[in-house]
Design goal:
The protein is α/β, with parallel strands linked by helices and 288 residues long. The protein has two domains: 69 residues, Roll (Ubiquitin-like (UB roll)), CATH 3.10.20.310; 148 residues, Rossmann fold, CATH 3.40.50.11690. Helices cover 37% and strands 22% of the residues. A nine-stranded mixed beta sheet has the order 6-5-4-7-8-9-10-11-12. A hairpin with a 6-residue loop joins β9 and β10. The chain is elongated and about 130 Å long.
Amino acid sequence: MKTSTAIKTRPYRGGYVGNLLSRQRKIQQIKSTIFITIKLILSGLFFLGIVTGSYKGYRYIVSSPYFNISDISIVGNVNLKREDILSLSGINVGQSIFSVKTNDIYKCLKDNFWIKDVSVRKELPDKFSIKINERVPVAILKSNGFYLMDDEGVVLAELMEGEARELPMIIDTGALRYKAGDRVSSEGVFRGIDIMKGIYEIKSSLKDLPLKEKISMIEPINHDRVKLYLRDKKDEYIIINNEDMIKKIRYLNIVMNLLNNESDDYGQKEFEYLDLSYKDKVIVKYKD
């Protein structure tokens, strides 16, 4: 009688194949890491080459005599000398045009109180342009001294009495002292400036009476009126405000012509003042 023997076997788990696949994955990961590392190194070297080349190119351009400033054009200056503007700007012929920052030059020049505005421009390869808009003196300010002043109330210079007599004088009742570069804050002074500017702007209406050339002094009276003193009169003055200036100047022309005709017919009759501060009438006050 035959007997049988049972043989136990383990289920197949694919151990050998699994180890092989795992080893292949590790190899692939190592290859990928090496590839990425090489790629990063090459990219870094490429970038470094670009930076180095760019820097060398920049250094070549900056140091090249081709871009050295050979001419500095300055226009618009009247009271400021060319040498003063160059000194303020810090620009010199011979320096590289790329070493000059136009914004810095603009700020340096704007710090000077004579300069109202300025344009600074590079003209490659070797030229530099500066266009100055200077402040223009329009009046003499009398305020515990005599000062040259522009239409924005900026004091441009201190004067001796009698200097610049061709300009009208505006009286500041505050009697403050100023120095060049200060900005006047008096409302009365700005009222006088506004009225004077209004007269200048309508000078085409003043053919028969060139009033703007005849104004010798402007004296504020109250919050909206001023006295205008004329050069060819003694103590006579005109009271005016800045409302409807064109109409009032036309009225003034008519009244002055009538007064001149009246003087021819009846002899010299001087007025003390003309008041144009009312809307539709002119008041004439004769001297006693």
